[in-house]
Design the sequence.
């Protein structure tokens, strides 16, 4: 946990954004894998962690704005629990570390919320993404769980997004630690990778690296020779000569802060000319983002700028054609880049996505595009100092999408399908780094940059 004062100050800031009502926080419970006492690794809700820091299952908390009090609700363990789990810190002490003196048993939450409901008081709560939390809210509030989402507090969502978007100094330090674990993961892949290995040998190794650093993966590892499948969790293939391998993976450190990096490498350690052609365009796009990202610039404008770089590069190779601006305006680049440039990152790898992507990445000024490709951009709004965003452009050759566009004659003025067919075996390239927006620009997070140029990758793979 951070120092107690960090949580106290965060809650004080939050309270000042409300004039009346109760703010209700529901922590996560255990999630059984195959029977109740065999659970997945516990992951606390990120907003709960941010305001209370308490990383145990089955907690809840309330800030009563009108009465100016804060209460935590969590159960003390009994002797049966201690026999199986060993001695546990008493809930009073956990509460004290969060700066809260009023700590009650979970059943008392029901009494307290039921009474607020009876008095018709406003209860602010956030969107839920777990069925058991929805059921708990349903019982607390007397609303059917399928209707819970209709009653979430937009004011609460906006307040949390406002506070969690710009990272404080403690958070940046933790994200940086997660990035340093990411460096170890990706360089391990580069050093191990060779034809004949199985993808799962690499995927398992890097998952192990997160755990060997007292952390975990920040999302299931994406590692595959089918680079064109954007989020491929299948690791069953044998690594083959002349294929590319994508690793999109990051760590969550012991404080639950995340990293998220992608590198695409040639399995045999040496890029072919065609692989290099595509790789160079993507690296140019990734570098352009680093050059452009700074406070007050919209991430949507940078996304569109890198769409132009990709289009121009593909035009130079003869894969695309026509006027670059027109092609991007018509969304032709999205055949090769069907996703967005990046997303916010922090306690969640897609930070606060559970609160609603549009609250996090868009606002009244910058609205989400409805055009295929650009609509997948998660982060579009103006950057601010201490935002952490990913920079992850890519180019992919997705057989099914290419076949669909070709048969439906979509954007055919801008695409040379004959030339596209020559590049299908490249499969794709994505390059991703994590950026901290600074006073006048941005900087890469992590002590050392994961090898990224063709020369750096070939050099480390040679070793
Ligand atoms: N890097 C994985 C993702 O952004 O979803």
Sequence:
């Amino acid at each position: 946990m951070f120092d107690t004062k960090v949580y106290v100050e965060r809650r004080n800031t939050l309270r000042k954004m409300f004039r009346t009502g109760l703010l209700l926080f529901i922590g996560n419970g255990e999630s059984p894998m195959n029977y109740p006492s065999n659970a997945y690794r516990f992951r606390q809700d990120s907003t709960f962690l941010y305001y209370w820091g308490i990383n145990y299952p089955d907690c809840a908390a309330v800030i009563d704005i009108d009465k100016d009090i804060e209460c935590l609700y969590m159960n003390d363990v009994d002797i049966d629990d201690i026999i199986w789990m060993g001695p546990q810190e008493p809930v009073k002490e956990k509460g004290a570390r969060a700066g809260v003196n009023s700590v009650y048993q979970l059943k008392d939450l029901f009494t307290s919320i039921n009474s607020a409901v009876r008095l018709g008081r406003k209860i602010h709560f956030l969107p839920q993404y777990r069925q058991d939390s929805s059921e708990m809210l349903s019982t607390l509030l007397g609303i059917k769980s399928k209707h819970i989402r209709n009653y979430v507090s937009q004011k609460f969502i906006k307040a949390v997004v406002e506070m969690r978007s710009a990272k404080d100094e403690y958070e940046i330090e933790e994200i940086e630690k997660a990035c340093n674990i990411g460096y170890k993961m990706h360089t391990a892949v580069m050093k191990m990778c060779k034809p004949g290995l199985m993808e799962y040998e690499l995927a398992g190794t890097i998952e192990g690296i997160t755990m060997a650093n007292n952390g975990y993966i920040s999302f299931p590892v994406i590692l595959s020779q089918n680079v064109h499948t954007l989020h491929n969790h299948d690791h069953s293939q044998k690594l083959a000569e002349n294929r590319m391998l994508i690793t999109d993976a990051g760590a969550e450190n012991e404080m639950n802060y995340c990293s998220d990096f992608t590198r695409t490498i040639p399995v045999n350690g040496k890029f072919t000319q065609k692989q290099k052609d595509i790789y160079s365009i993507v690296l140019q796009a990734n570098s352009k983002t680093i050059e452009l990202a700074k406070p007050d610039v919209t991430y949507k404008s940078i996304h569109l700028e890198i769409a132009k770089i990709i289009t121009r590069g593909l035009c130079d190779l003869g894969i695309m054609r026509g006027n670059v601006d027109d092609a991007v305006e018509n969304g032709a680049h999205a055949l090769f880049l069907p996703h967005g440039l990046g997303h916010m990152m922090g306690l969640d790898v897609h930070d606060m996505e559970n609160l609603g992507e549009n609250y996090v990445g868009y606002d009244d000024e910058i609205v989400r595009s409805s055009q295929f490709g650009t609509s997948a951009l998660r982060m579009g709004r103006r950057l601010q100092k201490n935002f952490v965003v990913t920079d992850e452009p890519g180019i992919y050759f997705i057989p099914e999408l290419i076949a669909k566009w070709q048969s439906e004659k979509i954007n055919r003025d801008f695409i040379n399908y004959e030339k596209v067919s020559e590049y299908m075996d490249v499969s794709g390239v994505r390059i991703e780094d994590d950026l901290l927006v600074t006073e006048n620009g941005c900087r890469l997070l992590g002590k050392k940059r994961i090898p990224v140029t063709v020369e750096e990758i070939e050099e480390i793979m040679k070793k």
Q: What stands out?
A: The CA atoms of residues 256 and 347 lie 6 Å apart.
